[in-house]
Design brief:
This protein has eight helices and eleven strands. By secondary structure, the protein is an alpha/beta fold. Helix content is 39%, strand content 20%. Strands 2-1-3-4-5 form a five-stranded parallel beta sheet, with helices on both faces. The protein has a four-stranded antiparallel beta sheet with strand order 6-7-8-9, covered by helices on one side. Strands 10-11 form a two-stranded antiparallel sheet.
């Protein structure tokens, strides 16, 4: 497994290199954002571990650039920025997982292995590419959502969240289950990231409408269902 570490702190680089190499993983290092992006363009990696605060191009910009190029390489953000807003920004830029410094090397290794095992874990493919509940439709081929035949503009993360809800109608979905399936994260971030994104989605599909589709199940999670 080839890993690119984009990090500018020598002590952190040393710790991660030692820990990953002990597990038989191959690690390349870039100490600034521009060099890191160039290495991603010129070489194939199985995983990118990415700091946000970097000389030159920052980690958010790098991640957006990776996704804009159509690359699906898993990205693990490893940063000292630990607020909910920071995490939401990082995940929304296209990161697959987010870890806050200081960190334990064993947890980092566990997350690296988890991302490596499931570069793309896909939900069961529906027989139809059109998912529907009430007057909300989702075209999974065109990646378009409509309610009352009006197109709803969604970010990539909002789209994935809506698709997961619509494939699991009338099921109570825990926050952990949503993290695992929408972000492919097996670890509790200890934040309300899921709640933040559910609120984003509610504002777009339920606001000012008589029939609400996303319901909070107190103490359990969320459910998508017509009426309640």
């Amino acid at each position: 497994m080839k890993i690119l570490l984009i990090e500018d702190e020598a002590a952190v680089i040393s710790l991660i290199e030692r820990g990953l190499k002990e597990k038989g993983l191959e690690v390349s290092v870039a100490m600034d954002g521009n060099t890191g992006l160039q290495m991603i363009r010129n070489h194939q990696f199985n995983l990118v571990i990415l700091d946000i605060m970097l000389p030159g191009m920052n980690g958010i910009q790098i991640c957006k650039e990776i996704r804009s190029m159509g690359m699906d390489v898993p990205v693990l953000m490893l940063t000292a920025l630990g607020s909910t807003e920071n995490i939401v920004t990082g995940l929304d830029s296209g990161a697959d997982d987010y870890m806050v410094k200081p960190f334990k090397i064993n947890e980092l290794i566990a997350r690296v292995n988890a991302l490596g095992r499931r570069t793309f874990r896909k939900a069961q493919v529906s027989e139809s590419h059109i998912l529907q509940i009430a007057n909300l439709k989702l075209d999974t081929d065109a990646k378009i959502a409509l309610r009352d035949d009006e197109i709803i503009s969604l970010t990539s993360t909002e789209y994935k969240l809506l698709e997961f809800f619509m494939k699991n109608q009338s099921r109570v979905l825990s926050r952990m289950e949503i993290l695992e399936n929408v972000w492919d994260i097996d670890f509790n971030l200890g934040t309300n990231v899921v709640d933040v994104y559910v609120n984003y989605l509610r504002k777009k599909i339920d606001k000012s409408r008589d029939t609400k589709l996303i319901h909070t199940m107190i103490g359990m999670g969320y459910m998508m269902k017509e009426g309640f």
